[in-house]
Design a protein that fits this description.
This protein is of the alpha/beta class and about 270 residues long. About 40% of the residues lie in helices and about 20% in strands. The protein is built from eight helices and nine strands. Strand 8, helix 8 and strand 9 form a beta-alpha-beta unit.
Length: about 270
């Protein structure tokens, strides 16, 4: 493998993947964003420890290819994971060549949410390219390109930005806007309400951040409620969600992933 060139503190997009075939589609979307930002593409293949434990149960295995159960061993599951990791690495290398990007690849045995938080501590942009098993709004395969996909006969799925102010808020908004521009997708900015005059300041920051942006944007001001946020994410049916990595605490990150059902991109402070 050709290692990514070390050119100082350049930024990377770390794409966390697992054995789900949808991860490769998420990887292609992340590569298109990396090309737009001119940053390194870093693949992080995750071996699911829960699947490995299940494979040790007497007489059962989950096939990574089909999702069906059949009798086998932990050794067989590990072999399937190695095959999937090799496929993912080849795709990272291919996309890096296509977009003229530096790249790297790592295999790690860890849970997705923990891996995302750990990667966000050292990198400025971390992407979960894991699509949930049930994805009723995925575009037809023929409509998917190396970028954010959309079906020509349906409303394009928006890029979502969770704007919670702070140091990282402007970065979240900027990256989400650029991602939306790549394939001419709409942008939806979610602004949770805050105490005092903070909400008005946040809305003003969003307006200034979107000024001059060549993107169709909608700004939604949400009530002071985590449930309201989760409901908004579920109804938005987004293609990708950008958010401040600092706000992705353990329990919250899992809840956001479950509600959004799309690529998650954690933006760390520079």
């Amino acid at each position: 493998m050709t290692p990514a060139q070390a050119t100082g503190k350049h930024r990377r997009i770390v794409v966390a993947m697992d054995s789900n075939a949808e991860s490769l589609a998420g990887l292609r979307r992340a590569a298109a964003l990396a090309a737009e930002l001119r940053i390194e593409l870093a693949g992080l293949f995750l071996e699911d420890v829960n699947l490995l434990r299940m494979s040790e149960l007497p007489g059962h295995e989950i096939s990574l290819a089909s999702g069906t159960r059949s009798a086998t061993s932990r050794t067989g599951m590990e072999r399937q994971m190695r095959q999937r990791a090799a496929t993912a690495q080849r795709e990272v290398e291919r996309l890096a060549r296509t977009f003229s990007l530096s790249w790297s690849f790592e295999v790690r045995r860890a849970g997705l949410d923990n891996a995302l938080r750990e990667a966000a501590k050292a990198n400025e942009l971390v992407c979960s390219a894991l699509a949930p098993p049930a994805q009723p709004h995925v575009a037809p395969r023929a409509a998917v390109k190396a970028g954010y996909p959309h079906a020509p006969t349906h409303r394009p799925r928006p890029v979502l930005a969770l704007f919670e102010g702070g140091i990282c808020g402007a970065q979240v908004l900027d990256l989400a806007t650029r991602a939306a521009q790549i394939n001419h997708q709409p942008l939806e900015v979610l602004v949770p309400a805050r105490a005092g005059g903070a909400s008005e300041r946040a809305m003003g920051e969003v307006s200034r951040g979107l000024a001059g942006a060549e993107v169709t944007a909608t700004v939604r001001r949400l009530p002071v409620s985590e449930k309201a946020l989760l409901d908004a994410l579920a109804s938005a049916r987004g293609q990708a969600l950008f958010l401040d990595a600092a706000g992705a605490a353990a329990g919250r990150l899992a809840a956001l992933r479950a509600a959004a059902k799309c690529d998650l991109l954690l933006v760390s402070r520079r």
